[in-house]
Amino acid sequence: MNIISLFSGAGGLDLGFENQGFNIIWANEYDKSIWDTYRYNHKDTFLDTRSICDINSDEIPSQIRGIIGGPPCQSWSVAGCMRGIDDPRGKLFYDYLRILQDKQPYFFVAENVPGILSRRNHDAFKKIIREFENCGYNVCFSLLNTSDYGVPQDRKRVIIIGYRKDLGIVFDFNNLRKSRNTCSLYDAIYDLPEPLAALSKNKSNYDTGEFLNNEYFIGDFSSIFMSRNRIRNWDQPSFTIQASGRQAPIFPGSDPMIKIEKDKWEFSGDNYRRLSVRECARIQTFS
Q: In which element (H, E) is residue 224 found?
């Protein structure tokens, strides 16, 4: 079944759909730092690297059954000051809607951060759902946690799914089957060898042996990072893996963090490090 991908990033969502038998024939990603990674891992997909704002719908393949993708989430997140639809990145939702309206595939899947459901963004989110419906789709959404579905990570995301109204289908989130057991950090990364410290904050070790990218980011920790506990035990899922290596959670074998006062934590010893790039990839269920 042919589908297209918008705001594709490195292609994680695309990989999930490919593993379920979908064929992604066209994708769009504007961030040039991601292009090589996407192309290397999705060799049969044409990657359009222009801004989505500059792409006309008639330049996108028409023989498709679905559209997937998550418009940039920074403008809806707490860390991004929750500017929502007032942020230029938040407005990119309208380009998703524009292409959906013009292509009219059987279904679409969009995802975003929990902040899109905040009280501050309530009216904007309702408007977005209404616009999806106006494109001709039966729309539903739910806040899901990936740890409920076999991922060793607490990662909450709002999933929006729509089926074209003439198909008479409404997606039912109640039919999703949760995993019986929570996948833990032990399950995900315990077999990996001890990683190397990066050569510097901005320079990697390129030869780390059998496991590529088996190194961790070094450098200072921000006051925001130190405002709460960042260590999970081996028998727990990881905290959310963020985009920045500097914000990676602390390795579960590290000395515990202790609370000093409100919004201020410290390490209880000298044995601690961030999770490595490879550990973060495993936790996100990349092979």
A: none
Q: Which domains does the chain have, with CATH numbers?
A: 2-175 (3.40.50.150), 184-287 (3.90.120.10)
Q: What is the pLDDT of residues 82-132, one digit of tens each?
A: 444 454 445 788 899 999 999 999 999 999 889 889 888 888 889 889 999
Query: In this predicted model, what pLDDT tens digit does every residue of 256-268 receive, in sequence order?
Result: 999 999 999 999 9
- Tally Cβ neighbours within 10 Å of residue 108: 25
Catalytic residues: 73
C-alpha closest to that of 212 among 274, 155, 286, 273: 286
Kindly give, in sequence order, each residue whose CB lies less than 8 Å from that of residue 181, ignoring residues fewer than 6 positions away: none
Which pTM does this prediction carry?
Answer: 0.88
Whole-angstrom distance, CA of residue 198 vs CA of residue 216: 6
Phi, psi of 4, rounded to the nearest 5 degrees: -125, 160
Q: H-type helices in 42-151, by residue range?
A: 93-103, 122-134
Q: Is 126 helix (H, G, I), strand (E, B) or coil?
A: helix
